[in-house]
Amino acid sequence: MNRKTKLSLFIATAMSLSAIAGQKVDKKRDNIEADVEALLLKLTLKEKVSLVHASGKFHINAIERVGIPEMWLSDGPHGVRHQIERHTWDSAGWTDDYSTYLPHLTSVAASWDPNIAKLHGNVLGSEARHREKDFILGPGVNLARLPLYGRNFEYMGEDPILAAKLAVPQIKAIQKHDVAATIKHYALNTQELNRTGVNAKPDERTLREVYLPAFEAAVKEADVLGMMGAYNEYYGTNANQSKHLVMDILKGEWGFKGVLLTDWNVDINTYDAAINGLDLEMGTDVTSYNDYFLADPLYNMIKSGKVPEAALDDKVKRILRVQHTIGMMDKNRKLGERNTKQHQLDARKIAADGVVLLKNEKVDGQAVLPLDKSKIKNILVLGPNSDKKHGTGGGSSEVKSLYEITPLQGLKNKLGKDVNIKVMRARSNVLAPIASDYVASRHWTGTPAWNISYYDDKARSQLNNESWIVDSKYQANDSKTTSYVTMKANIKPLKTGEHILKIAAKGDFKLKINGKLVIEHISKNGEVFDKSVNLNDKENYAFEINYDGSQSFTLGWDAPGSLFSEEAQYLAAAKKADVVIYFGGLSHGDDRESIDRPDMKLPNSQDEIITKLLQANPNTVVFMVAGSAVEMPWAEQANSIVWGWYGGMEAGNAFADILMGDINPSGKMPITLPETLEDTAPIALDDYNAEESLYKEGVFIGYRWFEKQDIKPTFSFGHGLSYSTFNYSDIKLSTKNLRGDQTVTVTAKVTNTSKVAGAEIVQLYLNDKKSSVDRPLKELKGFDKVFLQPGESKTVSIKLTKRDLSFWDIKTNNWLAESGEFQVMLGAAVDDIRLVESFNYFQ
Ligand code: BGC
User: Fold this and answer.
1) Any catalytic annotation for residue 263?
2) Mean pLDDT, to the nearest integer, of 224-248?
3) Parallel, antiparallel, or unpaired: how do β-strands 528-535 and 378-382 relate?
4) Ligand 1 lined by 289 (C-beta under 6 Å)
5) Using one digit for the tens of pLDDT, what is the confidence trace for 472-490?
């Protein structure tokens, strides 16, 4: 029986049950609380327990007797993940589980546009329904506190208010499709280093003002139905079972009515999880589902009276409530749509609106961008992201995209045959991994990849974890523990002849080719070591690397008929081209779940290559594709820099729209781009390690820290240019004296002073002139985006409430707005304030 037939049987059962109760199934959602209570009474203790833990990798069992269908969850947050086997992490091998690959949430954040967030949620919700999912695991709103954090690319930047204001419309749009959104990861998941063990210990004010507002808004303003707890600990206990986070705040103060579920395989215990409000346990690494903490152990504790049955009933009611709310028992439940042309157009719009123009200087009296098709005949395209696809990487947010347009393909689509596009691959002298062109083994998605196994012991008898990695390089996450890693791939030479293998390893490195030991190399320093082998292009070679160490290695080679151009060649081509476009940045080899980046530098000598290209041709566009900040030591020399994020399946077309001026860029940075890693708070304050995060910078996250310390980043939070220019004038406040709960509306006139239509995002930063606590010089409180024709003016309007004026007062354990003067700053970026006014607040 397939899922659809099963589902209609369940609906039929549910119909007959509700017929007994005198209700029609298609009206069931009118009376949810009563239906939930009635259904609860019909369940045995065993059945109730079976609803609060997984019975597969991504589902909870059905209780057919009473018409409860199987409940299905899926990742999120950039598209509906491919179907995973019921009981293993393998792909289920479906051929019809492709979905729309949406731009990442960092891109949504860069749009600063609630309508873009809504569009994103609409596609995600509709596609999740079409794949018969009940919970979609997203959006993610953990903040980009640390540029090295491997998962920044999945979230909405560094500011709590920006994330909150975008998460709300996104969640509402998802849930309109009869799917539960699942905001994650609650709370304080801000590093991957020892993500399941690190103990987060922020002070209460920092927690409330910085790390909770997006979750709070999701509960209070969007009625989010699902919330996923974080892997990390909070004051010594796992976040999922923290009384303070869950019972006091989430379910107490905020009145969350939905389901709190764990991340996959978290470190909890039955009693604390049961008592402190965890509703659903997912992904625990045990052989039988009955061994889950909230399975037999919970049943036994209830039987012996250690845990009251009422605690379980509350969890079950929440699950049933969500099931009823999203229409799981309703024959009129929405069906959703998938892979439609409209969804693809939406993906393209979202990607374009997230592109940030960081710099656009004039060369010979003309701004480098947009490119003028009538003048440009020869474009040289270089850089590791020019033809790279990103959908299938990064960890749980991977998407099996129906297709993916790379930046190069997007340019070709746009320019056709009129413009000559020359593509070259640049490489510096620094060792690079073996290019994926030679890797014959495939990840199930079709991406060339190495299989990587992590063992607990040198003899490799205890397998700990297995995964895929795109490049022949490895970086240990924690330099204190020895890793025992084995990587395997089939390698296919492109030409017969001498291949000079090059290895830089810190640790014990062995390479076998077809089972024969070719290299055994022990080194502390990682100096490059060569070994020549003759390989034949008619054969595939089984490469096996065994690495024992706590650092890193890279295996590269010089192969005959190199794919890469020599420096002199690509620089000569750069000099000749009308314009050079370098698509650089990161990939999911760097921005990925479970590991933080080792540093903030661009990988594979990109800085060196970019610097040389900039010297060769001033008409060079550096187009970054990345989900986290990188150092850009060449930024001063560059005339044109664009930041494009992982832009989903239509990224290439959207980027070409921007480069050619068919769409005027309007995105603004949702993160600060620091000059160096040492400028960031967690590193400057020595607060990044595997044991505990003290959040020493307090409420001074991201730009708030840079402003306080007076450090100039390469590009500031909120920065983003346009092909238009805008003038700000006429700031007005609806009142200059605000009392109690009154609100104040700030308006200003924005005029497009250029000859091109474009959009501007006006940002409102607030400063409490005199406060009893240390407050940021500028705190983002609101923003408004206006689209203006040439010469047109419009009024932007941003409302401030008492909460916007408040800080979290640890004495009263409440929000407090102190009487006094507040300064309102309207600007185009945190470092580009255009208008200033002030008002007085009286308690
Ligand atoms: C991730 C979650 C994800 C889950 C299920 C975990 O490793 O942290 O974000 O939803 O896996 O794939």
Assistant:
1) yes
2) 98
3) unpaired
4) no
5) 999 887 777 888 999 999 9
